[in-house]
Specification:
With 146 residues, the chain is mainly alpha-helical. 74% of the residues lie in helices and 0% in strands.
């Protein structure tokens, strides 16, 4: 089923390109991702999980929800990553989430916060283009490799 992989990868790349625009238009300037962007990405991920019969990416939804509830990421970021994880499946999602958390921790550490702290970070971590882009790139690369 090579066509499934091509369609999913194309959708993930389209989301990545969209998020570059979103970063320059809203996230960097206003610190938010509007629902008009995040909800369609979430819906695309859910539809992709149904079409490709691969709901494994939904396993990570509680992690994104808890990150939002703890105040570590915004609601728009959580919805975008929920959509990406639903679309890419578990292998790409785990790699993307691991890169995302690692880069966020490094960013906080560089801003003077300690390396080790609990679920709730001492500050909201901006998921601007460098951090989210590298995490999404890692998720897409893992998806294409496996």
């Amino acid at each position: 089923m090579e066509w499934e992989k091509i369609l999913r990868a194309g959708a993930l790349v389209a989301v990545a390109i969209t998020m570059v625009f979103v970063d320059f238009r809203w996230d960097r300037t206003e610190g938010r991702i509007p629902n008009v962007v995040s909800l369609p990405i979430l819906a695309l991920g859910m539809i992709g999980a149904l079409i490709f019969s691969d709901p494994t990416g939904l396993i990570l939804w509680p992690a994104f929800y808890l990150g939002w509830k703890a105040g570590g990421v915004g609601g728009g970021d959580a919805k975008v990553w929920m959509g990406v994880s639903a679309l890419s499946g578990i292998s790409g999602s785990v790699v993307g989430l691991a890169v995302l958390v690692l880069l966020a921790r490094i960013r906080l550490w560089r801003h003077g916060y300690g390396w080790i702290f609990g679920l709730r970070p001492p500050a909201r971590v901006p998921m601007a283009l460098p951090t989210a882009g590298m995490a999404m790139g890692a998720a897409i690369a893992r998806f294409l490799a496996g």
